[in-house]
Description:
The complex is a heterodimer. Chain A has one domain (7-445). In chain A, 71% of the residues lie in helices and 0% in strands.
Amino acid sequence: MALTAEPPIYRSDFTLTQVNKDISAAIFRKPNAWWWGGLLVALGMLGIGSYVVWVQLHVGLGLLGLKRPVMWGTYITDFVFWVGIAHAGTLISAILFLFRQRWRTAINRSAEAMTIFSVICAGMFPLLHIGRTLIAYWLIPYPNTRHLWVNFRSPLIWDVFAVSTYATISLLFWYQGMIPDLATIRDMHPKPLARKIYGIFAQRWKGTARDWHHYEAAYGLFAAICTPLVLSVHSVVSSDFAVSSVPGWHDTIFPPYFVAGAIFSGFAMVITVLTITRKAFSLEDYITIDHMELMAKIILATSMMVSYAYLVEIFMAWYSESPFDTHIYIWIRFFGPYAWAGWLTVFCNCIAPLIFWFRWARRNLVTLFILSIIVNIGMWFERYVIIVTSLAQDYLPTNWRYFAPTVWDIGTFIGSLGLFFTLFMLFARYVPVVAIAEVKSVLAEPVGERALLEESRA
Amino acid sequence: MPSSYHPPAVLALFLDPSSLLNAIKAVREKGYRGLDAYTPYPVHGIAEALGLKISWMPRVTKTMFFVGAGLGFTFEAWTMAWAWPLNIAGKPFISVPAYMPVTFESGILIAGISTFIAVFVAGRLRPAPNFEPLDRRLTNDRFGLYVPVRPYESGNVQSLLKEMGAVEVRDLA
C-alpha cells in the first residue's frame, strides 16, 4: 500500500496513557540538578542584564558604542535577532499546520513558547534604544494635550503595530492550544492546590465534542491569520531599513530576505533549545531524531535562500555601478574594516550549514547542536553587518568612524539571553512541553488523513 | 450548584474512538438526542456523528478581520488627514499604500482577539479553580459518551452501551 510509505511519526506501541505519563512527568516530579543549574545560570545572566539596564536608565545611552554616524548599533541588531528567532515558532504552529505536517506536534508547543519569549526579549530593545524609556508610550497613538498623532507613513510605527500584534496573537494562539493540556494536568495532578491553579488556567475545559468542534475551527483560523501575520512582521521590520535611503539598506529584496533569515535563525534556536530539553526531560521518544533531521533540512533550505539573497545584493551593487552601493556592499563588508564580520556571516550562514547535505550530520546531535550555535552567531552578525556597516561610512567621509560595542551593549544582550532562558526553564517545568492532545491525535491516525479517507471509502 | 446541574443521564466510558463513534450511531438510531461525547483529543467524525452544525468561528474571524482593518484604516486617515493634517514630504494626506501595514495588522489583531473570545463564549469557558470533571480520565485516555435519559430508560441504554463496547457505564443522577 502506498500509504505506508509515510513512516509513523511516533512509536507505534505508544498508548494514550503512556503519552500522558511521559510528557507530564516533568511537571509531577521534583526538578533535577540540571534544571536548577540551568535556571541559576539563566537567572545570573538576567541579573547581569538587569544591572546593565538599570545603570543605563540612570546614565543614558552614552554608555553604548553609539556615536555619529552609527546611531543604530547593537540594540537594533538584538531587536532584529530576537524577532527573527520568534518566527520559527509561528512557522511551526501555523504554516506547518496548514500544510498538514504532522511531525510539528512534537515541537510546536515549545517553539511557540520560544516565539513569545523572544518577542518579549525583542520588544525590550527598541524601548531602551529610544533613550527616554519613560515616555515609550508616545509610540502608541492616543489623544494627548498636544493634539499630535504618530506618523502612520513611517515604517517605525508599522513596526510598533506589527510587533505588538504579533506578540498578542502568538500569546493567544499558544494559550488557546494549551487549554486542553492544562485540563489534562488539572485532572492528573495529585496535589489539590496545584489542581486549583491548573483549574484556573484550564478554564473548565471538559473536552466535549462541542468544545473540540469550536476549538479545532478556531485553531485552523488562528493558523490562517498567523501565516500572513508572521510574513508581514519581518517584512515590516525589514522596511525599517529598506524604506530609508541609506546604501546597504535601500533594497527591494529585504522583505523576503529577512523572512527567510528569520526562519533560518529561528529553527537554529529551536534545535539549540530542544537538543537540551529532550535530554533533560527524557522526551527522546517524542522529539525524535527524525524530527531533528526535518528541522535540519529546513535550516539547509533557508540557508540556501539567505545565501542567494547575499549574492543578489552583491551582484546588484556591482551591476548598478553606484559607487555608494559598491562601497558598502562589497568594499566595507568584505574587504574593508568590517571584513571580519562579513566573512564570519558568510561562513556561519552559507558555508557551515552545507554540512546538512549529509544525512549523518542531520542525524547527529553533536553536529546539530554545534551547527545551531554557529547559525545563531552567524545570524546575529548578519544583522550587525547590515546595520553597522551601512551606517559607519556615510556620504560624508569626515563622519566615518569604526563602530565597536561596549561592555554595556554586550551586557544587555546577555541579559536578554538570560530572560529568554529563564522564561523557557519555567515554561518547561510547569507546562507540558509537548502538546499532549495533538500527539494523541497523531498516534490515533499515524499516517495522516488520507488513510482515514481510504478507510471510509473501503 | 447550578453549574453542575444536569438531567438524569448515563455516562459510558470507551477505550477507543471507533467504539465511541459506533455507540453514538447506535444510540442516535434509537432516537436519543442531546448526546455529548468527551474525548482527550479531537476525534474526526464525532461532530458529524452527533449532528453538530458547522462551527460559527469562521464567521467571527472573517467579520472581525474586516471590522478591524476598516477601523485601522479609518483611524489612520482620520488622524493623518482630518484631526491634524501634516504635510510630510509632500505626500498625500491619505497615503493608501503606506497605510496598508497598520490596516492589515489591526485587522489581524481584532480578528485574533475576537476568535479567542468566541472560543470562550462557545465553550462557556471560564477560570474554575474548583472544577471537577465527570471523570478525571476523560482528558487522559478514556472516551466518554453522555446520554440524557428518562429515569426508566437508564437500564436499556446502559445495556445497549455495554453491547457497543463500553468498559464502564454509570448513572449520573
